[in-house]
Amino acid sequence: MDNFYGPGRNHLFVPGPVNIPEHVIRAMNRNNEDYRSPAIPALTKTLLEDIKQIFKTTTGTPFLIPTTGTGAWESALTNTLSPGDQIVSFLIGQFSLLWIDQQRRLNFNVDVIESEWGQGANLEVLASKLAADTVHTVKAICIVHNETATGVTNNLAAVRKILDHYRHPALILVDGVSSIYVALTGSQKALSLPTGIGIAYKLETYWPYTPSIHLLYGLRASLDLIFEEGLDNVIARHSRLAKATRLAVEAWGLKNCAQKEEWYSNSVTAVLVPPNLDSSEIVSRAWKRYNLSLGLGLNKVAGKKILFMFEESLILFALQNMGLLIGDGMDVENPILFTVFGCGGN
Amino acid sequence: MDNFYGPGRNHLFVPGPVNIPEHVIRAMNRNNEDYRSPAIPALTKTLLEDIKQIFKTTTGTPFLIPTTGTGAWESALTNTLSPGDQIVSFLIGQFSLLWIDQQRRLNFNVDVIESEWGQGANLEVLASKLAADTVHTVKAICIVHNETATGVTNNLAAVRKILDHYRHPALILVDGVSSIYVALTGSQKALSLPTGIGIAYKLETYWPYTPSIHLLYGLRASLDLIFEEGLDNVIARHSRLAKATRLAVEAWGLKNCAQKEEWYSNSVTAVLVPPNLDSSEIVSRAWKRYNLSLGLGLNKVAGKKILFMFEESLILFALQNMGLLIGDGMDVENPILFTVFGCGGN
Amino acid sequence: MDNFYGPGRNHLFVPGPVNIPEHVIRAMNRNNEDYRSPAIPALTKTLLEDIKQIFKTTTGTPFLIPTTGTGAWESALTNTLSPGDQIVSFLIGQFSLLWIDQQRRLNFNVDVIESEWGQGANLEVLASKLAADTVHTVKAICIVHNETATGVTNNLAAVRKILDHYRHPALILVDGVSSIYVALTGSQKALSLPTGIGIAYKLETYWPYTPSIHLLYGLRASLDLIFEEGLDNVIARHSRLAKATRLAVEAWGLKNCAQKEEWYSNSVTAVLVPPNLDSSEIVSRAWKRYNLSLGLGLNKVAGKKILFMFEESLILFALQNMGLLIGDGMDVENPILFTVFGCGGN
Amino acid sequence: MDNFYGPGRNHLFVPGPVNIPEHVIRAMNRNNEDYRSPAIPALTKTLLEDIKQIFKTTTGTPFLIPTTGTGAWESALTNTLSPGDQIVSFLIGQFSLLWIDQQRRLNFNVDVIESEWGQGANLEVLASKLAADTVHTVKAICIVHNETATGVTNNLAAVRKILDHYRHPALILVDGVSSIYVALTGSQKALSLPTGIGIAYKLETYWPYTPSIHLLYGLRASLDLIFEEGLDNVIARHSRLAKATRLAVEAWGLKNCAQKEEWYSNSVTAVLVPPNLDSSEIVSRAWKRYNLSLGLGLNKVAGKKILFMFEESLILFALQNMGLLIGDGMDVENPILFTVFGCGGN
Fold first, then answer.
1. Binary contact (A42, B12; C-beta < 8 A)
2. What is the complex's ipTM, to 2 decimals?
3. Tens digit of each residue's pLDDT (9 = 90 or more) over B125-164
4. Contact with chain D for residue A29, Cβ under 8 A
5. CATH topology of domain C2-25+226-310
6. Which of A10, A23, A26 to mutate to test the interface with C (most CBs of C within 10 A)?
7. CATH assignment of B31-225+316-341, given 3.40.640.10, 3.40.50.2300, 3.40.50.150, 3.20.20.105?
8. What are the beta bridge partners of residue A255?
9. 3-state DSSP assignment of residue A89
């Protein structure tokens, strides 16, 4: 299969799968093991504990789910809501569009707030909707934290503030696939999840199904790398690299797809290709001549000829193909439910 | 984490994850790649074509799903049936029990035919039920091909014959997780799966979500190994090894859990532990003294003190953690739907 | 190339290359690195320090040489002796025979003390020779610590005692390839090795030639495994496994090649094949039927039809293909030069 | 150990170890094997046959030696010459300097022809020396084909022509470590190497010592990659990349160390650092800020502040740490001895 590639190493710079650190590749280079032995529960315990630090929570309950981001979307929706429930969803790019499509297929009653692609979520419209919803018909707000298709990041804290302002109990469900970030919401709903909690409880020692031993060891290695560097240092590094990328884009005389600084993403930079160039031709040449994988604009921004640049992601490899949900119960001071899911790719 | 194990290699002989051939481990030892590049669709195409040979079908449509066997169970049920549909399910061991639990949670109307653990599916009861169901209320027959918990294999061809005899249109859904075998059923239902077919169609070139590059390359390596040895030779080898295992069990003065030769499994041999021994103590000592992982009896047969022996499985590693469904459309001579799912572990 | 093997894993039980722990395989799974960067000297420093613990010395100077045991033989001879020097060499099996052949090709004046194969070194003859050598013509005693071909271990401490008794300054050069043990000798010679010491000095920070980055990381992983288990525990484990192997040989009604308990090796057990069996046929069948590699008797003991059993060796993989010399300078109480070389195979 | 590096991948651009293709890393990711089994001799046979194609010879006899380039230097000298023999050696940079040092330590009578560093071998002086040597005292010409320290390549064909012109029987010994090229010489000497030929003969089926199984499989993978791309295509690619590198150096306003186009190397480009910059500071910053390994000027050219740029080498990884000698016997038309040794690093 390798002969689909030219000689030498392939250079991966797409807004999709990230480059895997050699340390992580090595950790997954192994035979199978018995997941019912004493070793795997002990390993799992460290993972479930340590992953909380990535989400900066001490009380949240993380779930590791053997699926992709798309599967985690579904799992989050079906385990916290009921068919027919009304939800508000922001449409700001290709991935929020796909999620909304899934929400409709799962028979939720979706109220869409759309922005021009390249802009962030329109929070003013959300505020007016919540102000009007005094009977609390809206059960959840669905928002993509970092829209990969446009390199736009939404302000989750502002969403939380709006909900608090109107004392609205709706959940916030956040797609953190290309950001790993946290979403906050006040809700008793989280307390009514016997199945989920049951699973979480079992997870503390044993898996209720066959986990991927390899991804568990890979996740362990990823966490070790992050802790060794320091989570804040990792975030600062991505911030620095992302700024450097945006400055380079400007220096080349090109334009960022994200229209305002408040929406700049630190994990994906989408660049507008000049009108006289064909972005698919650029991607094709990069592949053939330089063994270099670049991302193309999708859907609406494909018409605007967008070429993607991608910084090394905060979302390290091992999380990919393993869905991740994290939920937090009631807390007097700051009632929140962390519902972050995703990872590394939809 | 490695220090949970004693020194030296761990010896894996459980009725769960199988030992991964070094060839397959090597194939998965790599960085990420762009799944939208020309290389991955080309690789995927060879996989979807070659995997049909494993299922000995030329017209079936295989689906590769990023999930475990448990997820594939759900996917098969929700994509071929509707909530409330009546289904007949055989209960012959722990895994059929778990599947029936899932069927009930998904709101199907489940009619259970139970056998003593250690025996196969009671097909006479099925025949009388189908004979009585002249209005075709039963939409599907759910059967575990190889019950891992007891080392019992069911006769799928006999199930097919009963349906044909009564010209009954119910689907046969088969859990082939520990056997990879084929299930046959006549049904127009398969033709009414626009989403599924749409996905299958797209799969011929591109993935609609982020696949695990590593599992794809691992699957490629697995298929190469099987084709190199010859599928029939692989099956013959497992048959030979399984027979040798059963003869060894007898020579040791022990008894097989599977009660009749017609139910003997060629991929799992479950052994009854003598009444004076504690099977969990055997497993514990094997772990501590010999770095050897053995399987314990589950649920009902735990009471009967069953110790598992496990031959190297026909189901090679790469299929694990990647659900697999294969469906065949209408065929005048032999109307069948292959609905095999599973792989390597639930 | 893999198709030279039958399906499934190959089982390695030869008196040659040992099975590599997965931890070590993983450590060597990497790209090249710049050996002149700050990282490799730092890694090398830990290796040179930690390897002393394996040799239980605090003052010895270890040398890592990119070669096999055969190359380390040559390096030890040519760096401590001069052409024409008289040396005493024990011939007790195939590997001592090969070393003597090399000693003669390198123009040393070799006085051979031969034993029947299956017996240890004849130390009485050595004692009488040293008693007679009052003018100290003999410059070195060459002895294979563990003769792989016969599973015989020599008593190095007894050799040291004889030299001390006659106050003889000859060096003891020990082939520890299949044992990793220490050799002792009193000699000022070791102090007159400017080149060697120069190299050793440089080695503390930088390599004078291109080292194998992979073997260095592998060695690091090997040492970590040994230290984690505890060196004495590792030795005790091999002692226990070797005893179990010898008891099993007896229980099978077969005979050990090593003729007396004092010569029993804890890393290689050589078994006499009954006269009515053809040992090469046994090895050939094991290979074809069971994908199992066994060792054959070599040279003289081939006539006696010897089949080898091999316990997992104390000599972990990473040392293989990397010669190892360790030299200790003058010490008032116990004047010794550790000159151990070899490892993992000649 | 990994924490000696910054986060992310290390970028290797040194005139030393080359980046290893993932295909080759994968091939070496394995347990040990019995080198006396039928598999390894079969593998070795394909290697010895296929490696001739890399050297473009059909009659040469390749030797694989478990050592570094430094060891292969010694092996070539001591197996083709006798102590005291007179040899002519070109001194044009750090590696030819080190080889000459070794030649002197091995007691050869070395006549050095020195060039300014940055220039190639002075062939006019060689011609006059050979013209004067009518009694054929000179037994060998030692020349580094590609001087890594200065990025200078020597014209070996011109050396061959001079020897032919004077009908001089001296051997040409070529260090091809950073080029893999062929050296030619007319000599009956090659025919008088019973040991060498004996080894070569044995090598066709069995190894006389323990080879590195891993490097053999790595070499197999390297050769497969080269043959897949086509050797001439590999050479053309390096020529193209090297030219692009030199053009880039000019475009940056910097100067090449190699002083004339006839000496330009296609595997190493050495760049003169402007007088106002400190090259060691450049290397240090590249390491700390960018996780990027660059090479420094050595010895004489260190004074001239040289910074190295290194193209992906023709010498793929698996050859490294495995010396390689290739010798060709008498041939009526073109009496030659290929004596190439080295690879991937001294």
1. no
2. 0.77
3. 999 999 999 999 999 999 988 887 788 888 888 888 899 9
4. yes
5. Aspartate Aminotransferase, domain 1 (3.90.1150)
6. A26
7. 3.40.640.10
8. A272
9. strand
